[in-house]
Amino acid sequence: MDFIMQLNSTVNGFVWGPPMLFLLVGTGIYLTIRTNFFSVLRLGYVLKNTFFKMFSKEVRGEGEITPFQAVATALAATVGTGNVAGVATAIALGGPGAIFWMWVSAIFGMTTKFGEVVLAVKYREKTEDGRFVGGPMYYIQNGLKMKWLAVIFSIFGALAAFGIGNMVQSNSVAAALQESFNIPPIATGVVLAILTALVIIGGIKRIGAVTEKLVPFMAAIYIAGAIVIIIGNASHIPDAFALIFKHAFTPAAATGGFAGATIATAMRRGISRGVFSNEAGLGSAPIAHAAATTDHPVRQGLWGVFEVFMDTIVICTLTALAIMVSGLWDSGVTGAALTTQAFNESIPGGGIIVSIGIVLFAFSTILGWAYYGERCAEYLLGKGAIMPYRIIWIPAVVLGAVGGLEFLWDLADTLNGLMAIPNLIGVLLMSGTIITLTKEYFAKERTAK
How far, in Å, CA of 358 to CA of 355, rounded? Predict the structure, then answer.
């Protein structure tokens, strides 16, 4: 067992280390250049056709769920405890400059996610019972004709989901509710498992129906709280931005409880927070987008851009600014405790907002990753694997809430990082398809006008 743990630690250090992080960001840079900086220069067009059409009933093409339900499911999985605790940790260990590098990773990550979604819709399949299935395993198999690589991705995805998407999330919920309301973890686990079962048994249509209501609600509560803090400390905003840009390129000296950080540390912490948060390049979100009703892969790809923008540029940035303007970033506290202190400092009972945010973010992540995991299991073993996977998923929620099995969490974390390797191979080798479809889409748009 010691050998296995050591091996896992070594592999984990690689898949979540600087080389992999720069490969993930590098893929985004490559795609951004090849698409003529589309996701940045045409962000207004993207928001006009996503955010401002969020609740539009106009849906064209084939699919199981609406475009917004697809992105809501994907956001449900990506907007998690990392948006609360992860950002705080990045600042506490990497300094204010980490926020700048988080933005950089998100800017290029928008194009990576765009490319993943485009490929997912292009190469998705329609099952005999009318469902639409897709994701990296399908575009690797159907686009590259490399089924063995698709199988590897699916194995990593089906197993990794139990860590990042299940037990780690339920543990975060249990810890937050125990600290704020003294609720026993076992009680949290049981209730959470029941709620999860009620949703995931209904498949993607029920998950989509729940997440399209849950995601806007949970985001609105948390965003409103963060904005109140930022406005209440408006005089500190210029200083916060000055520190962010200054320490993105110069070391941050030790101050208060902050131990100091080099430029390299700020880069690594910021880039990793961006990648961990929006999952651009990991291949998870395209699985949800593949079920969307759309008439062109690029039209759904726009929602991929929006997804990263909302997750990292909006929610993670608001968390970061709330911490910075509160003046507590160098207090020596880290993780969710730092975010909680920042909210409590400016809003009476603000810590409750953080606790509610963690609960809703984590629950939504459990729902989204349940779908990702079962799609990977179905790819490997057929439709018959879906219900057994759901049945195993539900008690795992309780196990995570009560703690233990930390080694399994660590192993799942490693597998989660390994998902990126086959996915990035697929995205890079099929980048030509992404460019062709993008040009085709905008040519039709110009003709229509």
Answer: 5
